[in-house]
Amino acid sequence: MSASLFNLQREHLTYLQQAYTDLLASHDLDSIAIYSGHASPHFGDDHTPTFQTYGHFMHWVGMADIQHSWLVIQPNKRPQLYLYAPADFWHLPTQLPEEPWVTEFELHLCSEKITPTLAGRAAVIGNIEATTRLALDAQYQPDPLVKALDELRMFKTAYEIACLGEANRLAMAGHQAAQAAFIGASAELDIQLAYLGASRQRESDVPYQNIIGLNEHAGVLHYQHYDLNSPTQRHSLLVDAGRRFRGYCADITRTYAGPDAPTIYRDLIDSIHQLKDTLVESVAPGVEFISLHKQMHFLLADILIANDLFQGSAQEAVDEGITRAFCPHGLGHSLGLQVHDVAGLRQPDGTPLPAPEQHPALRLTRTLRPGMVVTIEPGFYYIPMLLEPLRDKALPINWRRVDSLANCGGIRIEDNVVVTESGFKNLTP
């Protein structure tokens, strides 16, 4: 760990200690215990799914695989870390890295699963079993406190932004390898393996299941399989894939035209790249994210018209829901310890701030402020179930040209962007 990153992490922990002290005082609490969580077996089985540490625990510790452990925060005291690390020959016990930040905690190595003793008025948060709740004389998951902690995570420290930047750097190496594998006529599984190898991670470590879609699969927004065989024709590749660094997530998407793609598809990829750049450059403090999302739809309408896919006006394309049929998802979301990070659909005071009725898939409705990190991910897709209802309407859609894209599936371009004091910083090279 570099000295500069440790100094940033130490400042991050100092900031968290003060922020938690203030929240404990405002919620009339003497302590808060955060449970890391643990994996539960599949129903009727003894195997567990991939585990991810509870976000508020990770906010302090920065490790995504700690189970059965506790963190107790009290004012004017070092955080108490009760790390479950039993003697075990079946699995390698959890180990903290030999890094100076560990000394910022009062460390207790626990060979058994424990329940910490809490002093005074206490709150407990995390996915805690009912029997454990009964053993603790504390408020469980108090909603106002959890919402306040979520809001704290909405604004990233310099340490967190550095981690997100490194996650992006590592993920981009994977994207470059995926593109090379596509050029080499690989199957989806081979492209996935190339991505994992270049980004230096195993599949159970990715922050979300990578989306590797060839041809029509690029039009399935959360495509969840990897074909084992290469297609006979290569029209397109969409790669939506990430990486963690100290718990923080990169979420990047790139789309490539194959040798069998029509010229219009290549032109559309260039246009969506330009659209993405325009929206990234619009990121700044005080900007409403919903406004950026609406701007995306008008820019998409311009692309439809410029490529002779729609022969009406941009306003008509938006009003008639045509742009929503070609891009049914939101422009982006908050990014941090979770890919779809917390508090994106709430006011700063915790009250709901839901997505507009016309754009129900939007995951972020906030006014942008310095320290927020968001994704900007415009898309353009050929999705038959969404386009079919438009065929029955008297709309000036050039269906012959639209249908020429059927084998290509779709396009999505996604960058990760920090809102700065004066504008933005794009973390995605």
From TrEMBL:
Keywords: Dipeptidase, Hydrolase, Manganese, Metal-binding, Metalloprotease, Protease. It is an enzyme of class 3 (hydrolase). GO terms for cellular component: cytosol. One of its GO terms (biological process) is proteolysis. InterPro entries: Creatin/AminoP/Spt16_N, Creatinase/aminopeptidase-like, PepQ_N, Pept_M24, Peptidase_M24B_aminopep-P_CS, X-Pro_dipept-like, X_Pro_dipept. Mn(2+) 1 binds at D251, H333, E377, E414. It holds the Pfam family PepQ_N. Residues 10-149 form the Xaa-Pro dipeptidase N-terminal domain. PROSITE patterns: PROLINE_PEPTIDASE. Its EC number is 3.4.13.9. It catalyses: Xaa-L-Pro dipeptide + H2O = an L-alpha-amino acid + L-proline. One of its GO terms (molecular function) is proline dipeptidase activity. Splits dipeptides with a prolyl residue in the C-terminal position. Belongs to the peptidase M24B family. Bacterial-type prolidase subfamily. This is Xaa-Pro dipeptidase. The gene is pepQ.
